[in-house]
């Protein structure tokens, strides 16, 4: 049925059509825009939830999730008797997360700075970079002080436990132990050499924290730290104290530049003491200079002078070029343009006389009985020119030139300690051939119940002969009388070496040395002493280094309860004007 409209109605419908059409267009446009917005929201959601998921999750975790390091306790270092030489104590470190912090009120900033002894300006600078999520405020403070800091209630300020290294013996043993840095890592000495063993392994704890730094929950299993191992040194802290006390006194009394002492177990090669002066306090290194840090006994090289003579004379005895009864003409003689002479000239001397009078002429003539290659091979076997492999960081190898490049004079001068460079530690080790039947022992920094086997350098016969000659050198008329110990026999050799500056040996700068063993009849200890540039008047090794040997070795024998092997009245004072027989 068709609907009929009047003319008036048809007119009204015609007038409404454009409006209806416009309204429908607007609806479609709005729906389209809404659809596009909806699609944009869906796209954004997909982008954030899928494409940017890792980034956003990381940003959220960076603000609230924290991976905390659980610091391992560094291992204790002890002496051979269990006496602690390096220990770690718990301390606190204050840190902040500027990215999570609101501006700190000035009053709070002043209070924090007053507690930590930091200016408000410096604190403001540390906290100003809001891109940083971790910054140290003050490290290694006492737990009591850390509690006061946290009591201020500053959001974003937190504390964590660390360990600080302490050295009970201080400067007495600092060159052996070394020290750690503020991060707890070894920097020098045994602390550096055995870093991996001592450091252990840090643990890890992942937590959620609020903006005030409070832990809300753990979000992963805690990985506990593994503490470092205890390390027992061969050092005896009682002997170490004696060595340091005596070398310090000798350096100061003789107004010397420096001094060193090495004490070895004569039968095992264990390092019982090593002291240098000047020294430093590892607990407080403010004002410490590089010279104070030098472990001179290990890294300083020098020409050993007459302390080398027993070693070079041994080669002639070993190869049958001479016997203990051999007598040599000891008048001065020429090698090319150079003259070999003695300070205390004698027309002739037997082997004991050559040692007692410290004859350059006699020693060099014995050395020249061997070929350059044999002489070099012997010095090489004694470890000269090679690191001693003790484990000390930076240990020196010394200098021993290839025999093929020697000039005629060099073998002669090397026999009495010039033209070859060694460390005091190397010289002390070389003397183990006289206390251990011709076998040179490796030096051990660490306590051991099973000493490493040594290397045979001399036959037992030659070693015993030289041992007896060195003991005889401490009797009246010998050059080692200044090292005698009340109640004990000794064996030893003094030395005085001029120092080389540029290419010239200067007359007023010396090194005074003494190396010996005690008791002489059954050696337990080897003690080597070096005093660098004494300027108080005396400079001969027999005059200023031998007494240090006497005090250190005598005290050490009593500490170790070694029974005296001579009467208590065996002391022999050296002549007040000793013959200069050290050169």
UniProtKB/TrEMBL annotation:
Pathway note: Cell wall biogenesis; peptidoglycan biosynthesis
Membrane topology summary: Single-pass membrane protein
Residue stretches making up the Penicillin-binding protein dimerisation domain: 70-218
Active site positions, chain numbering: 306 (acyl-ester intermediate)
GO function terms (MF aspect): penicillin binding; peptidoglycan glycosyltransferase activity; serine-type D-Ala-D-Ala carboxypeptidase activity
Function recorded in the entry: Catalyzes cross-linking of the peptidoglycan cell wall at the division septum.
UniProt xrefs under Gene3D superfamilies: 3.30.450.330, DD-peptidase/beta-lactamase superfamily, Penicillin-binding protein 2a (Domain 2)
Protein keywords: Carboxypeptidase, Cell cycle, Cell division, Cell inner membrane, Cell membrane, Cell shape, Cell wall biogenesis/degradation, Glycosyltransferase, Hydrolase, Membrane, Peptidoglycan synthesis, Protease, Septation, Transferase, Transmembrane, Transmembrane helix
Main location: membrane
Annotated region described as Disordered, given as residue ranges: 564-583
UniProt EC number: 3.4.16.4
Intracellular or extracellular location(s): Cell inner membrane; Membrane
Catalytic activity: Preferential cleavage: (Ac)2-L-Lys-D-Ala-|-D-Ala. Also transpeptidation of peptidyl-alanyl moieties that are N-acyl substituents of D-alanine
An annotated GO cellular component: plasma membrane
Ranges that cross the membrane: 29-47
Assigned protein family: Belongs to the transpeptidase family. FtsI subfamily.
Biological process according to GO: cell wall organization; division septum assembly; FtsZ-dependent cytokinesis; peptidoglycan biosynthetic process; proteolysis; regulation of cell shape
Protein name as annotated: Peptidoglycan D,D-transpeptidase FtsI
Origin species: Aquitalea magnusonii
Leading EC class: hydrolase
SUPFAM superfamilies: beta-lactamase/transpeptidase-like, Penicillin binding protein dimerisation domain
Stretches assigned to the Penicillin-binding protein transpeptidase domain: 259-552
